[in-house]
């Protein structure tokens, strides 16, 4: 789950993700249907994964890992770390990081107690850690795993000035819409292929007596994801790259068009569960529960977000593939269905044997397999056995991500300076929350976005 970052002078994504070129849809063949069991196992691989990489003996050494993950995500990541402990003999400590994580790390570094490794969920955060001279380059063993298991695009996202610092352990396909199958059936709706059909499906769900969508407006990153998917599909990848680098202003007509399109959903009375005020008080996990708790009478019929939704669904009585299904974010304005991705990278903050061993482990299929078995996770590791994923829905999401290779776009807000795209209560997050409250004020939102962006990029 994406979180927030900021500290001192923001270092933005000055080098755009140039490896990520024009996109089509991340096809989700079979994701709307039941489990096909095409890998010969309905529940994914069980037990500890077979070791594919040799790790050093770290008995007597301590390794600390900072991350902002909580709830189900933290629980399964701890299982990943436990396997590392068993294989190396190291004593691993999970350090719960507060938002924003860069600010948290700054305080740890200033106090002389930085963690060995930090999980950074923004591309710009890696550059900032390098600029602050906190980050250590990956060692030769970790580099071997990256070269063996990762496409060039994912490696480049973890590099600064040609030197590798980050290991992208967790990816996210952020162009998915999940729906309650009972609600969809009762409404007589269908999986939409384009925005107009999406609004028609939403109307059908509304007419059946249920709010069409649950929006986690309390967490600004979800609203940036809504905007980015509409914008990428409608304006196209070239404009997307230009806006990400602030080569065009947020007052550009393409932004006006995207916000107006998004307002067709946000501004329609009864379409957002709890209305704007309710949405602004809804955090991500609750937005999923609003869609899948209550059988065929939940608070909402659909929820937009990435593959991590499946992990949140696992904490309800709903089952992915039967009670919960998924379709690609609909194409907007005659464009392609968008393919927006995010990710969390492991970065060493200490030049220690334990830190480098953990990076090596996280770059291998061994670590990825543990979380993949649990669900709610997609790995950019191309050598992870697809059969490890617990069901056909998640296998297809993973296959689509790997098959896309470099044909994707990285989350735009994660490419911008943290002061603009990753700060609670400020910048893009705050402006889009205000827009959710008043989606008719497109011009005001554009002006506020441009003012915040201009300041952040200048700083």
Automatic annotation (TrEMBL):
The keyword Signal applies. Keywords: Signal, Transport. It comes from the Bacteria. The keyword Signal applies. Gene3D superfamilies: Periplasmic binding protein-like II. Coiled coil: none annotated. Residues 1-21 form the signal peptide. InterPro entries: Bact_solute-bd_prot1 (IPR050490), SBP (IPR006059). SUPFAM superfamilies: Periplasmic binding protein-like II. Belongs to the bacterial solute-binding protein 1 family. PANTHER family: ARABINOSE-BINDING PROTEIN-RELATED (PTHR43649), OSMOPROTECTIVE COMPOUNDS-BINDING PROTEIN GGTB (PTHR43649:SF29). This is Extracellular solute-binding protein.
């Amino acid at each position: 789950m994406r979180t927030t970052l900021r500290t001192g002078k923001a270092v933005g994504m000055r080098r755009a993700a140039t490896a990520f070129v024009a996109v089509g849809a991340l096809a989700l063949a079979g994701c709307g249907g039941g489990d096909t069991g095409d890998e010969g196992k309905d529940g994914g691989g069980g037990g500890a994964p077979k070791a594919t990489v040799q790790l050093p003996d770290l008995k007597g050494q301590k390794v600390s890992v900072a991350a902002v993950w909580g709830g189900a995500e933290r629980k399964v990541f701890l299982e990943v770390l436990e396997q590392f402990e068993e294989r190396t003999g190291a004593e691993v400590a999970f350090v719960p990081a507060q938002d924003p994580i860069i600010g948290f790390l700054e305080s740890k570094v200033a106090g002389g107690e930085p963690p060995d490794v930090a999980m950074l969920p923004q591309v710009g955060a890696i550059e900032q850690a390098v600029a602050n001279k906190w980050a250590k380059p990956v060692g030769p063993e970790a580099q071997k795993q990256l070269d063996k298991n990762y496409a060039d695009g994912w490696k480049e996202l973890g590099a600064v000035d040609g030197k590798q610092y980050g290991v992208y352990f967790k990816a996210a396909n952020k162009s998915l819409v999940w729906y309650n199958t009972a609600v969809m059936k009762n409404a007589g709706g269908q999986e939409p292929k384009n925005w107009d059909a999406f609004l028609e499906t939403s109307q059908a769900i509304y007419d059946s007596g249920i709010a069409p969508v649950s929006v986690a407006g309390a967490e600004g990153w979800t609203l940036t994801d809504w905007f980015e998917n509409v914008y990428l599909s409608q304006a196209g990848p070239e404009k997307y790259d230009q806006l990400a680098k602030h080569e065009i202003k947020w007052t550009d007509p393409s932004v006006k068009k995207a916000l107006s399109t998004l307002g067709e959903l946000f501004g329609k009375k009864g379409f957002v569960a709890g209305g704007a005020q309710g949405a602004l008080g809804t955090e991500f996990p609750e937005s999923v529960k609003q869609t899948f708790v209550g059988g065929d009478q939940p608070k909402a019929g659909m929820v937009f977000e990435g593959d991590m939704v499946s992990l949140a669904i696992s904490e309800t009585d709903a089952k992915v593939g039967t009670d919960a299904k998924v379709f690609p974010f609909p194409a907007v304005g005659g464009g392609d269905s968008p393919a927006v991705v995010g990710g969390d990278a492991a970065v060493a903050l200490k030049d220690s044997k334990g830190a480098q061993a953990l990076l090596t482990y996280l770059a291998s299929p061994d670590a990825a397999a543990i979380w993949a078995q649990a669900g709610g996770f997609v790995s950019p590791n191309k050598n992870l056995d697809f059969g490890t994923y617990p069901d056909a829905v998640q296998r297809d999401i993973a296959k689509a991500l790997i098959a896309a290779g470099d044909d994707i776009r990285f989350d735009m807000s994660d490419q911008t300076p943290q002061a603009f795209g990753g700060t609670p209560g400020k910048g893009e997050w705050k402006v889009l929350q205000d827009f959710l409250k008043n989606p008719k004020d497109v011009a005001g939102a554009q002006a506020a976005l441009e003012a915040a962006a201009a300041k952040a990029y200048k700083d």
